[in-house]
Design a protein that fits this description.
This protein has 499 residues and is mainly β. 8% of the residues lie in helices and 41% in strands. The longest helix has 20 residues, at 76-95. This is AGAP003804-PA-like protein.
Length: 499
Amino acid sequence: MDLDNIKFTFASNGPIGFNSSRTGDTSERQPLQDFGTDPMPSPGCADVSTQPRERKEMATQTISAPHSKKYATYDDSKLVSFIRKVQPIMEEELSYGITPVFDFNDNLYEPSDRYRVCRHQELTLRRLDPAPGPCKDVQKPFTAGAATWLSVLTRDAPLLAVACSVNHEAWCEHFTSVVTIFSPQRNRYGGSVQWTELCSNPVKACIESLDTNPFNRDMFAGGTVSGDVYIWQYDHGVRNERNSFTELHSETTDCGKVVDMAWARYNVMSKSDSALLTAHSEGTVILWRVGKTVVKDKIFKLSIPSASGGRATILTQILATSNTEFVAGCADGSLLLCSTTQLIPLGMTVGSVASAAGKVNHFSPGTIELKSHSFAVTSLQKVDRNRRQELLISCDLTGEVFFHDITDTINSSPTLIIKMPLPFKTRIVCSNDTEFIFSPTGSGLLELYRIGTGKVDTVEPSLPLKGTPNLIKMTANGKWLITGTYNGTFIIYSVTTEY
């Protein structure tokens, strides 16, 4: 029988018009016929070699009849209605463009993650001729840097104030230093921005810290290694006038060098006035009332409750958690929560009228000691997480990070402790969603530590840089980072978040 006719014989049918030449009821031999004979039905266990061909032919037979009512399952009108409904959604999605695929050779961090951090620009400060004295060596490298982000000027990029200094001995006469403002400038096509030097102001000594008033981001303060406190106001130029910043106040204190600064509201009733807290190395914090005038309001003398034998308190960091409380970090790792509503006047012993008159503004604040670090506290930060939870984040020299929940009250024990890998962490900053910790290290590297997994990635500079950075600052909008100093060079990073 012709093999091409097998596909028409899936089932054995009775003969048409004549009897079959085969029968299963009798063993008699039937007369042979010349035509009209069906083959025997296929056995229950078919040969394996024929089964794939039978399945393929069955599928071909099914597809070959698309117009039969059995397979007609669509309606033209419903299909048109569906396309009209989907088309606007598709056009909106296509208007956003395709998702960019980044080259792994680019200076980017984990394209698959939400955060993409890349090196944007390097800023190098110009050296000034020093004044005569022991510090006249112009080749001495810059080892300390200070920077702060001011108000946003263009394309989510704020103004930047920076300053550098060298390491000085106690006997050294500090040469005149400057604070320099850098302005973000768009390129001619309106794309990326580059920071260019705008203006500078001199100061009496090397700047140790800079900090911006969060309630007026055109106002910022600076403190020097000689105990000088400066407050400046940035003036936006009108028409052809050159932008500059004006010195609102400067004063020299006798409490030691200014190690850190923090801004807060002076009180809830006076929203026009701000409070500036300056932390000095000798365990002193000065509260300045900044309004139409700048007044030294109160002087706090801090002590560690658990310290015995009159051990001196050496401050390293300060952070305002509210208009009535602040946290101070110490060189021995202590964390002190201080309240300005619970003040004990100093020098008020019986019979010491002269001593009391000389210390009218001197107080000892109410102090609670939080869990201490093992080494010097190098960073303090407050993060408002999801607008419902406030976290106090502290870090010491070895990279040990404490997370305290301060939403309602500050508990003495941290809710989370992280031990980041060495080398030593001089400064850190945590992302607002508390997923990443950024920390600058030697040779110009930026480390990105993922809190959930402990994974560490790095962003490398264009060329290896010398120096140990002591600075990292993130903008209020979380889009820019600055680290330094590497012998007078700062690195600006752009931070892109994909939601």
